[in-house]
Design goal:
heterodimer; A: Ubiquitin-like (UB roll); Alpha-Beta Plaits; Rossmann fold; 7-stranded mixed sheet; 5-stranded mixed sheet; 32% helix; B: 165 residues; alpha+beta; 2 domains; 4-stranded mixed sheet
Chain lengths: 806, 165
């Protein structure tokens, strides 16, 4: 592309062809005023505030829509330009209520700022003003369209980015408005309350309710941290005043969410200020809980743990650790139990992702999403199978929408319509439970039509012969029966997938967490291996987790048989290494898993448990059995923010801090380790889990010298190869993606370049019988299957938040 | 989510036969750029754009209801309310104005009890004003559907209206 030379305000510069004058000016650091411009939306030249004077041009031009041309001489603040900008601002405020003294946007209002900049004090044009009713019926935000300046950014965000399509321009001329169809209330529209419109409104037309009257921008502190809900790990700014969170804004510089959020991140934080927060340690006395001091609570815990350990042996102790705990907390949690001589450490809520872990580990040797979310945008094809990312992981949904706008071919195989169905190039409406059959049929077609990748298969995989012989023509025929689609649909979609130079496969909990999920994961892994869509950019297998630190928790070794970085406990060298570092002797006896405990194998040996932030008693289909196991323990300690169903069964409850009240790192689904900063102090006597564990360990006789989570993270880096190069200092604003083996390493965007964790990628044939059985059991469990375990943890937050109304 | 109360009420008091919609929309499926033609065909069918019909179009064509409403309210050719069997267009062009069209309009409004832009309760007449119908030689002139009635005086108006059943 040829470069273009032009002059702006006397400075010469060179830009690529197609660059607008606005972009060129911003490269020079010139602050051109804009109201309707948004970097991720097509420029619409609506507000005219960015006009500039171009020498030899007849009239002023809108710089946001005018491409730079060779030899152009541009003046951005000439007298003529300024005169026009003043007129535009006067016209805007002529029909804009000047209620700045009470407007929530005062101080961060672009219209106000520009009026200030160009000394526009009052409107010189007097005329009609818009009279529109306030829409404050919903629980989340207020829409005051009398303040709207019709920039159209919210419409673009709603229609293009989020795909909700709740609002558009309506009417014409003076009465033009932005809103839902038929002037409905926003809550009666298709609005999903993602808040994208609110955070991009240049004026005060859209205001979160929680913020109203809570402070001016300059009175509010902003703390950069990470959303505590799903595994995407969106960067957010918590806005706080007087130790109270009043708003959340997205981090526009985060490589994860780039200024996007969903309703959970935007509005779901208010549980932090719930009246139900536990603020003091509680001990059970008869059938009631009595508030006590930390001293008494710790004394009781230490006495009981010591006694049970000496009477029944260390294997009588077990810990359940929440995938919402930070990496540091997860790490010292398992360290505490292993130091006590028990490898009984697990997370029950991880259970729902067991199929993903199992399937991926079998095929690749590791259980993490192979590529990064941003790469989806550049994938040539995306195969979305039994997933509704706009609901479960909205950022991934936004990325897929963005990819499609840029020409990516979306192949969607769904048993139910989703917000992405209509924009798919190939939409296969499959019968519920037939996803495995479909994935296998794709493979059969690809083999039959010679569309597979022999070079990749020869060099990087094993088990191909057995796999390919399992995929005869009958697989295609049978899958048509099982899926209910026709052969032409199947073949054309499989071809589109196989012929793309880079194809990503995306499946979320809906597909994976159901029964037989590991078969689906295996089928999808086979498909990725068959087409060589692994170990490089813009392809891979995306099975995003549902909890914010599910990845990190497992990385930190909260698994019975694995230490940090999935180092196997059974290997003596590993045990010795940790024994030396921790100055304790590690038991080689493999620990009990949460699943084994609750299915009854372990409830005879385990006598005392520490449950940190988990709520197994309210989780999944086996709640009654789980409750029974917990009830039968001799001693149960629960670290919690709320009186959950599990806490109700405890002997001692310790009040825990929420995510906004403590520091720590979290690892998102793309293995990005990000830093979470404390914005407020915990209520009452509540303490961060890491502080509780450190204190408890000290009282149990271990000499831990952690003064901050950062101290713990240094130890993690020393003992975990994937995290070796990760430190708080290096994490910075963008995070670092593991594997990051040394302190110069930039982190890894995608996995398995050149080598899988297990060496070669493994093909695993899936029998026709298995597929048919699966369909049958899916149909039977259809209603049960929808209630997956996946959100039980977030639920104890969500249920105490305004987002429970969604 | 709940539809607005107003929408539910409309659906109850004014049941719309939506059975023709599948066939109407069929040729346009997958062609989101054809919004205006689709709305025109629907308006031809119903005489206006009933909300329940637009909601069906939104679902079938995967076009947000807000966008359809945006288009429907942008172009004056689209009507969101039921219109009368007879559309009276009073010419407000220069020639008609000089020849007394305001008085003609006033008389029609008085007889029908509606303002310009409105429809009589019995859905018989809709009264509209237009800039010029291009029949200045007949000024002042009105059109009732496709029939011109020229050289009117206020007193002749009633007979013209009465001639429509």
């Amino acid at each position: 592309m040829s470069a273009i030379k032009l002059t702006i305000d006397g400075k010469e510069l060179e830009v690529a062809a197609g660059t607008t004058i606005l972009q060129a000016a911003r490269e020079l650091g010139i602050d051109l005023p804009t109201l309707c411009h948004d970097p991720e939306l097509p420029p619409n030249g609506a507000c005219r505030l960015c006009v500039v004077e171009v020498e030899k041009a007849k009239s002023l031009v809108a710089s946001c829509v005018t491409p730079a041309a060779p030899g152009m001489v541009v003046h951005t603040e000439s007298e003529r330009v300024v005169r026009v900008r003043r007129s535009i601002l006067s016209l805007l405020i002529a029909n804009h209520p000047l209620v700045c003294i009470t407007c929530e946007q005062t101080g961060s209002c672009k219209l106000q700022d520009y009026c200030y900049r160009y000394s526009v004090t009052e409107n010189e044009y007097v005329g009609e003003t818009k009279e529109l009713p306030l829409d404050s019926s919903n629980a989340f935000f207020v829409r005051d369209m009398t303040k709207c300046i019709l920039c159209g950014i919210c419409v673009g965000k709603c229609q293009e980015i989020a795909g909700a399509g709740a609002i558009d321009f309506t009417m014409r001329g003076f009465i033009t408005n932005v809103g839902p169809a038929y002037e409905d209330k926003i809550e009666d529209s298709t609005c999903v309350f993602c808040g994208l419109c609110i955070d991009s409104c240049p004026v005060g037309a859209l205001v979160p309710k929680a913020l109203i009257g809570k402070g001016r921008p300059w009175q509010v502190e902003k703390t950069k941290t990470i959303c505590p809900y799903c595994g995407v790990g969106c960067g957010i700014y918590l806005q706080t005043r007087d130790n109270e969170v009043i708003n959340v804004r997205p981090d526009f510089d985060s490589p994860v969410n780039r200024g996007h959020l969903c309703a959970r991140g935007k509005f779901g934080w208010d549980y932090l200020q719930s009246k139900e927060r536990l603020t003091t340690p509680l001990i059970r006395s008869e059938e009631v809980f009595v508030a006590v001091g930390w001293e008494e609570a710790f004394g009781l815990i230490v006495d009981n743990l010591k006694e049970i350990r000496s009477s029944f042996g260390p294997a009588a102790l077990m810990g359940l650790c929440s995938p919402k705990a930070s990496n540091e907390e997860s790490y010292i949690f398992q360290k505490l139990f292993r130091s006590l001589g028990s490898n009984n450490v697990d997370s029950y809520s991880r259970h729902c992702h067991a199929p993903a872990v199992e399937g991926m580990t079998r095929a690749f040797g590791g259980a993490a999403m192979t590529n990064s979310m941003e790469e989806l945008v550049s994938a040539e094809a995306i195969f979305l199978i039994e997933a509704d990312p706009l609901k479960t992981h909205p950022i991934i949904g936004y990325r897929i929408r963005e990819a499609i706008r840029q020409g990516t071919c979306l192949i969607a195989a769904q048993s139910e319509d989703t917000g992405l169905s209509d924009i798919a190039s190939y939409y296969l409406q499959i019968k519920s439970g037939s996803a495995v059959a479909l994935a296998n049929a794709f493979a059969a077609v690809i083999l039959e039509e010679n569309l597979y990748n022999p070079k990749f298969i020869n060099k990087r995989t094993e088990g191909f012969a057995a796999y390919s012989s399992s995929l005869g023509p009958e697989v295609v025929r049978r899958s048509l029966e099982l899926t209910g689609i026709n052969e032409e649909q199947l073949r054309s979609a499989a071809r589109a997938f196989a012929t793309a130079n880079s194809a990503a496969i995306v499946s979320t909990a809906g597909g994976v967490a159901q029964e037989g999920g590991s078969l689906l994961v295996t089928a999808l892994a086979n498909l990725a291996l068959l087409t060589g869509n692994l170990g490089r950019e813009n392809c891979g297998l995306y099975l995003p987790y549902s909890e914010n630190n599910l990845q990190g928790s497992a990385d930190m070794g909260t698994l019975p048989a694995l230490l940090t970085g999935y180092q196997p406990l059974r290997e003596k060298t590993v045990r010795d290494h940790f024994s030396r570092a921790w100055k304790v002797e590690l038991s080689e006896q493999p620990g009990l898993s949460a699943a084994a405990l609750f299915s009854g194998y372990g409830n005879k040996t385990v006598k005392a448990m520490l449950v940190m932030g988990e709520n197994p008693a309210a989780c999944g289909e086996h709640r009654e059995a789980v409750t029974e196991v917990l009830r039968n323990l001799n001693f149960l300690v629960v670290q919690e923010m709320f009186m959950t169903e599990t806490a109700m069964l405890a002997d001692v409850i310790l009040p825990a801090a929420g995510f906004a009240e403590k520091m720590g790192t979290y690892t998102n689904v793309e293995r990005r380790v990000q830093l979470n900063r404390a914005a407020i102090v915990p209520p009452g006597d509540a303490r961060p889990d890491w502080a509780i564990l450190t204190e408890l360990a000290g009282r149990l006789g271990f000499k831990w010298e952690y003064e901050s989570p950062e101290d713990i993270s240094t130890e993690i880096a020393a003992l975990t190869p994937q995290y070796a190069g990760i430190s708080y200092e290096r994490i910075g604003a963008k995070g670092l993606q593991w594997p990051c083996p040394h302190s110069e390493h930039p982190g890894s965007k995608y996995l398995y370049e050149g080598r899988f964790q297990r060496g070669l990628g493994l093909f695993t044939p899936i029998s026709m019988d298995d597929q048919a059985k699966l369909l049958f059991s899916y149909e039977e469990n259809r209603s049960a299957g929808k209630k997956t375990l996946c959100n039980c943890l977030s639920d104890s937050m969500r249920n105490r938040s305004v987002i429970s109304k969604l | 989510m709940l539809k607005s109360v107003a929408a539910v009420e409309t659906a109850i008091t004014d049941p719309i036969d939506l059975s023709a919609l599948d066939a109407i929309v069929e040729p346009y499926l997958g062609k989101k750029e054809m919004v205006i033609p689709v709305l025109q065909v629907i308006q031809d069918h119903y005489g206006y754009l009933p909300r329940p019909a637009i909601e069906v179009v939104s679902r079938l064509m995967y076009i947000p209801l807000s966008s359809l409403y945006g288009v429907a309210t942008f172009y004056s050719q689209f009507k969101l309310k039921p219109r009368g069997r007879y559309i009276i267009r009073v010419c407000k062009g220069t020639a008609c104005h000089i020849q007394g069209s305001p008085k003609i309009a006033e008389r029609i409004e008085a007889i029908l009890g509606v303002q310009s832009g409105e429809t009589t309760d019995d859905l018989k007449f809709t009264l509209e004003e237009v800039a010029c119908i291009g029949a200045c030689a007949l000024a002042p002139v009105i059109m009732v559907n496709d029939n011109p009635h020229g050289r009117l005086t206020p007193d002749k108006v009633k007979a013209v209206l009465d001639s429509y059943e």
